[in-house]
Each structure stands twice: as C-alpha cells, then as structure tokens.
Amino acid sequence: MVQILRRCDAEIFEKKDHDPFHQRLYSSAVIQTMVDVAKRVEMMLRDPEESVIVLSGCGTSGRIAFLLVTSFNEMMKAQKQKQICSYIIAGGDRAMLTSQEAPEDDPALGAHTLEKICAGKKHVLFIGISCGMSAPFVAGQLDFCLQHLDIFTPVLLGFNPVHMARSEPMQGCSFHFKDVAERMTAEQRHEKAFVLNPVLGAEAISGSSRMKGGSATKIILESILLAGHEAAFRGKRTTPECISGWITASEMVYETTYSHSDELAALIHQAGESLRMKAHVYYIGWGTLGIIGLTDASECVPTYGADFDDIRGFINNGFREMKNKEGDLSCLGPEFVIGHKDFVDTILPSLSQNDMVLFLFAVNDDLHEVTALADQVRRRTSNLHAIAHDLEKFTIPETVCNMFGTILRITWPFSSEEVNSVVMRQRWELSTKWCLNAISTGAHVLKGKVYMNYMIDLRVSNSKLYTRAINILQRFTGCSKSECVRALLRAIYSTEDLSEDMTSADVWKHTDAANRRDRVVPTALVMIQCGCTLTEARHHLDCHPVIRDAVNACFNSSKTKSTVD
Ligand code: F6P
Hints:
There is one protein chain. By secondary structure, the chain is of the alpha/beta class. It has 3 domains: 1-238, Rossmann fold; 252-447, Rossmann fold, CATH 3.40.50; 452-562, Helicase, Ruva Protein, domain 3, CATH 1.10.8.1080. It has helices at residues 2-10, 28-46, 60-78, 107-117, 136-146, 177-188, 212-234, 240-258, 261-276, 287-304, 319-322, 340-347, 367-378, 398-401, 422-446, 463-477, 481-493, 500-504, 507-514, 520-530, 534-543, 547-564, and strands at residues 51-57, 85-89, 123-129, 152-157, 194-196, 281-285, 311-315, 356-362, 384-391, 407-412. The protein has a 5-stranded parallel sheet, sandwiched between helices. Strands 7-6-8-9-10 form a 5-stranded parallel sheet, with helices on both faces. Helix 3 (60-78) runs antiparallel to helix 10, helix 7 crosses helix 8 (240-258) and helix 17 crosses helix 19 (507-514). The longest helix is centred in the C-terminal third of the chain and has 25 residues, at 422-446. Bound molecules: 6-O-phosphono-beta-D-fructofuranose (F6P). The site of 6-O-phosphono-beta-D-fructofuranose has 19 residues, from helix 3 and helix 16.
C-alpha cells in the first residue's frame, strides 16, 4: 500500500507539458497563474488597511484553508504586520473537527458568509477551493465575486479541467458549478479572475480528495502566499522560477517522507490491527502537527463511515492552540474535546493494549512535555509510536526516541537557523499529512472498508455524495440508475415500500435522512446484488461484519446462483 500511495502521490509532481488538455502543476500556464495570483497577494499586503485575502472551502479544503491562514497570520504577527488573511469553512468551525457535509450544498450560504467577512473592504482576493470543482458553497461565493469585480478578485483552485466541473443543479440556483468555472475562465482573459486547475491524476481511493487534492492545495497556496510575502516585504520579485522553486521544495518533502516506507508500513499495519480489533487510534500532536492529526482523523467519518472515536486527534492546549475564529467549542460534544489534558482525563484511564497511540511532534516542540506524556501512556500500553521531525544539526535526543515502539523519525537537511521558520514547519506539516493519510487510509483498507478502490461505506450526507453512492452501486451491480436509486432510497428510509413522498422528495431530503443511518450503500448493494429484502440484506451484513467480505460474499453467491440457473 505504501508503494501504491507513493506512486500515486508522485503524480502531483509529474512533468508532462505536452498534453494541451491536462495542465500539470509544473506546466508553464499553471506556474504563470500562480505568479499572477502571488502578485495580487503582494498588492493586498501593501495595502493592508483596505484589503483582505479570504481562503474558503468545504471539508478538507476548508480545513487546509484554516491551517494556511492560521500559519500565515502567525508569521505576519511575528513580523509585526497586519494579519489580513481570513478563512471560511462550510458549516463553521465545528466542521474542522466533524463532518458537516450539508452546508456544502448551499451556494447562498457561501455567498452570504463571504459578504459578511469582507464588509467595508475595498480589495478582496478570494480563493475558493474545490478539489473536484464541485462544491455549491464555493460556486455561490465565486458567483458573488464575479458580480462585484470592482472589489473582488476571485481565484478558483481545483483539480479538474473546466469542462469536467460539476454540472448538476444547485439548491435554489439557475446556474451550476461548471457555469461559474466557465465565467471565471472568460474573466481570466482580462486578469479579473483566475482559475488554477492542474490535474493531479486519480486519487488512490476514488473521490478521496482529502489526499492528493488536500496536499496539492497546501503546496500551491503556501507557494503563492509566501511568494507574495517575499515580494511585499523583501523586495523579491515573483517569477516563474521562484514559484517552481517552492514546488520543488515540496517535491523534496515528498521524496524524503516516502523514503521512510518501512516505518510507514509498520504504522499502517499497527493502526489496521487496532481498527480490526474494534479498538482505537489516537493521534497526540503538538502545534500545527496536532491540527494535521485532528484533520486526518475527522475525515475518516464521511469517507469510511467510521465512528468519530475510531481514529481521534488531540492537540496540546486544545482550542487555545488551534486559534480558530469561534474559540473553544468543547461544550458541543465529545468530538470537540481535543486537548492533551482531555486525553489524559477521559481516554487514558481506559486505554488498552489494542489501542494505538501515535505522537506527532518536532524537535522544537516542548520535549519535556512529550516525554512526560509518553511516560504516562507507557504505563498503560506499549502500543505507543511516533512521527517526529528534527534537523541534522538539532536532533531529538535518543532517550526521547527510545520511548516509542516504532518511530518514523525524519531528520531534515536544513540549517538550525531554519528551525523556527514557518517554512520549516509547513514542510513538517506536509510530511505528517502524507504519513497520516497513508496510515488512516491503509488502516481502513485493512479493516475492509474499501472495495476495489472505492469507499464502499461512505456517508451519504450531501448531493455530491448521493450521486457518488449511485455511481458506486451502478458500477458494481451493472444495474440501471433507477434500480440503484430505488435500492438506495429503500436503505435510506429503511423501508421496503417507498411512498410517493419519499420518491418525489428532493436530494437534500434524502441526504438529511441518510446522514442519520449507517451502512446505507452496503445495504443497497446487497439488496440489488442478492435480490433480497432490506431485512435479509441487513442480516447478511451482520453475518459479515467486514464490509468488503460482505460485498465479496454476495457477489460470489450471485455468481454461483447464476451458474446454477
Ligand atoms: O462532501 C464531502 C467532501 O468530499 C469532503 O470529504 C471533502 O473534503 C469535501 O467534500 C470537499 O470537496 P471539494 O474540495 O472537491 O469541494
């Protein structure tokens, strides 16, 4: 799996410049657009009182927006400059830790949130992120910008060609995402808007844009923001060469991270074992590495139909460290209890040997704190591991490394002066993201939550995921769309007899109901494939708690049946 993921992530950096339809990250047109956008960043930074830079997205795209804005603003603060970056995540800050997929469907909400954040500003650089070029929330925002080009410069970041942008109707709208993307392209000719859409190749798990899509979002936007910053404050002109230089630095992070494939494979194996035994994986992170952990953990719920506590993240100092807009959200429920102290108080007392604990830290984090917490964990379990970053001239002491079973320790070839730089930290974040994406994906594959490379047990919580569920059913059963829709609705509404109300309801009613139900897609798949009732399908799934086994068994039995027939 590590080798597959390694090859898959390599496609982010593929240098094929001869395909006119599919621009890659290194294609000259993409680099030039990045230069153009970096120049807009520079302009905004030179006029901080009147300007704001807004990054917005849904799910992982919103979480990456939050992370980038937080670290860029921290850098500005440290240099006594005005913090002019802001983030929007569909569903608000709670979406950083939990899956809030429904607001993604609401273009008016997107536009309204953007309008509010930019009130009174004369110049707005808006970067709307939608990896699949599909999120109505972002389309609504881009449409709003296109109507106010005197103030807004909209940028669309995604990883599909414009002609493949989503063209399904959006709630309460006369246009769809593709219309907006085409209008953006038209405005790009006058440099009034920009579309940044290199193709990255397919995701390892079909549709899991949190992986390559999320990594590329981070690489591209960090390069743009840092280039704009260097131009504004260090007089360093933004050129295509300097943008390629930033990308090449990320490519080096990729190479270095995957050169530790043995340790990575060991961590995937360990996490898979824990999930298979119905135990848990806990990421205990420091600073922004903690945020990477929280992000990776939260994505497993919609992607694999996981429970929120299958894989969970914790961060030192909880929400104080997050520095999110809405502050401490811990009163919202157990998913929002995220501090190390919370881990010690609520999880540690019942921690078992089957639970895996994975520390995420770097040499400049508080190593006394790391050691003290590792000591506490070790008193309950030896299933304690780490991903740790240090530098050739500033290494983590062996006594600390020896506390962990498997330690994926990356010693980076940078000078010790770089240790506190934002750039160094961003590289460690990217490296940790690649590792955790591999661990959580691999562990769910081992748990049997993936069939072929499809997320067969996804949560059907918005219109995009509803369409994806139908596509998955059609692909595996070969049945007509209408048959698949009927089976899906039977699973969603938990009934054999679909009423007229149910079949005629709109997709948002379906997703609202589906959001509250488990194993919707597997149930529908078994019903279609085995030609059985809802009760029989559920019984079949109960007999095969591993979803992949359940699907395999029903395909095998229908094969045998048709041979006999
Ligand atoms: O709808 C859920 C989801 O697929 C998330 O898992 C994902 O991070 C998010 O949508 C954003 O997708 P996109 O960046 O393509 O808009």
